[in-house]
C-alpha cells in the first residue's frame, strides 16, 4: 500500500486513546470518568428535548450551512453570520484551519504540552510544529510571538483558558498581543473552556480582525461532546475559506438542533458554571486533604500537582486507573508533575476522593 | 487573507446546495422532499430508540474507534474488524481517502456526471479529475480502466449502483474487472445504494484485496442521513491508513448507537427495500402517465427521462421547484435529459404525481 507522500511519512499514532478503548484494555468500565473534560452535569434539558425531537428527522441530511444556529450564534456574540463557521467540533475545525493555512513545510507555533490534536493535524498536512515551553504553568505569549516571527509561522496556537493546566491570561493582555502578531501569522485562539472563565480572562476582539480566529465548542460548558459540534469566529474572508474545503453536510442534524437549544438556555449555563465552580473547589479540597496542591483553574478541570516528578504523577495516574478512576495528565515536564481531573458530579468526585489516598500510597511505594 | 496554495487556488463553490438552503431561497418549505435520495420511510424503530437512549449520554465523547459498530459490521459482512473503518458518512470518508492516496497533481478517474462531492475533494487536495462519459447510462468500465492506466490514476471512482442514473453492473463483471486495475490504482467502489440492488449486482470481493476499497453508508437504506455515519471496507493496511489522518473523535455518539441498532434490524431493512421497490414502481407509473420514461433503477431513486434535452429537463425541475417539489438532475449531457426523483412515502409521491403535468406544460411552453 503506497499512500501519498505526506500520509506515507506519518507515524501510525493517534492523539488520544478514548475512554471506551481504555476500558476495553483494562477489562472493566471506569467508575469515575474524569479524564476527558467532559461535562457530567449534562446538557440543558431543552437541548435534550431538541435531540429527542430531531431524532424523528434523522432521515434528513442536516442543513449544510447550519443556518439557524449560525444566526443564533451571531446574535449571541454580537457578530455577523459571516463571521461564523460551524463544524464538527473544534477538532474538526482545527484540521480544516491547518489545511486552509499551512502548506507542507510551513511552521505552526504552539506550547510544549498543549493540545496534541493540533500537532496531529499539523503533522497530518505536512506542517512543522515549533514548540515553546510553558512559563509558570501558562503559555508564554512573548516567546510564542518571537518564535512565530523567527520561523514565519502561519499559525500561533494559544488556548485561553489553557488545557491542560487550567491557567489563563487576562483578556487585556491578549488583546494587546494582537499588535505583535507577525505579518503572515494568524492567531488561533482556542476558547474551548471560555464559558468557565472569568469575564476578565476573555479578550475583546473585533470579529473582523484578520489577525485572529477564535474557536468555541458545545462539548464543554454545553455538555454535548458526543454530538460533535463547535464553531469558529473570524473575519469573513477567512471564514469563507472553510467553504472551499469543508465537508458541507458534515455537521449532524441532531447536533445542530441540540446546540441551538443549548445556546438559548442561559439559565442552565449559569447553573453549569456554578456546578463546575463547586466541583473545582471540591477537587482542590480533595487535593489539599492529601497534601497535594490544586492549581487555579478557569476551566472545568483542575491540574493537581502531585508534588513529585512526571514518573511519580504517572504512577498515581496508573493506580487511579486500576482503581476505576479515568484521568489524564500533561505530557511533558514540568507540567507532568500534575494529574488533570475533570469537574464532575459529586458521585464521581467522591470516588476520586475515596481512592486517591491508596493511589498515592501505591505510587510512593513503587 | 492568504491561504495555503491549494485552497488559495480553489473556487468558492460547494458541491451541493442543501434542501434547507433552497427552501430559504425560494421563501417556502418544500411539500415533497425528493431531491437528496433521503429515505423518508425512516430508520428502524430500534434505531430511533437507540437515538433516544444515546441522547442521555450526549455529554460523553463517542468511542473513537466505533468498536461495537465495527464488530457488528465485521460480522454482518463476514470480514475482520481490521477491514473496516467507520467515518462521518461516505462524504467524510471520500475526503480522507483522497487525502490518503492522492498527492497534488495526481489523477483520479471518474465519470462525467458522477458524484460531485468526489470531484470536490479531489480538487480540494490538489488532485486532477479525469472524466469519462457514461455509456448507455452506465459507467463505462473498460474506458475508466484504460484512462486510469494512461494517466496513472491513483483512484478509479465507480458507484454501483450508480448515482445519478440508478443503473448498475453485474457483480461478476465488477469482480472480473479487478484484474484489469492498473498497478498503482485503487478502485473506489461507492456502494451507497447497495442495499437496494439485486444480489447479482453486488461483486464478491475478498476484503483483503488491496486493489479495491468499498464504501457503505447508513444514510440511505438505513434512513440515518442526518446522523453522518458510513464505513469503508478494505485491506487492513489501507484501512489502517485512515487512522493516520482521520478526526478520531469525529463520529458522533448517537450515530454510532443508532447505526448499530439499525444494522441489527434486518426485518426493517427488508420492509424498507419493499417500500422502496414499490415507490420505484409508483414513480415509473407517474412517468408513464405523463408520457415520460423511467429508467430502471437499483437504488432508492429513479431517473426519469423527460424526453427532451438538458434545458428542457431543467425547466421541468424549475417548475417542480416552484410547485414545492424538491428534486435534482444530472449535471451533464446526455444524462441531463433526466430528472432524478427519490423514492418516498406515498404522500410525497402523490404531490409529485399531482404537480408533474403542470410542470411539464410550463416547461413546454417556455
Automatic annotation (TrEMBL), chains A, B:
Any one GO MF annotation of this record: histidinol-phosphate transaminase activity
Keyword Ion transport appears in the UniProt entry: no
EC number: 2.6.1.9
Species lineage: Bacteria, Pseudomonadati, Pseudomonadota, Alphaproteobacteria, Rhodobacterales
SUPFAM superfamilies associated with the record: PLP-dependent transferases
InterPro entries assigned: Aminotrans_II_pyridoxalP_BS, Aminotransferase_I/II_large, HistidinolP_aminotransfase, PyrdxlP-dep_Trfase, PyrdxlP-dep_Trfase_major, PyrdxlP-dep_Trfase_small
Superkingdom of origin: Bacteria
NCBIfam families (alphabetical): PRK08153.1 (NF006014)
Domain Aminotransferase class I/classII large per the UniProt entry, residue ranges: 33-356
Protein family per UniProt: Belongs to the class-II pyridoxal-phosphate-dependent aminotransferase family. Histidinol-phosphate aminotransferase subfamily.
Protein name: Histidinol-phosphate aminotransferase
PROSITE patterns the record matches: AA_TRANSFER_CLASS_2
Source organism: Paracoccus jeotgali
PANTHER family: HISTIDINOL-PHOSPHATE AMINOTRANSFERASE (PTHR43643:SF3), HISTIDINOL-PHOSPHATE AMINOTRANSFERASE 2 (PTHR43643)
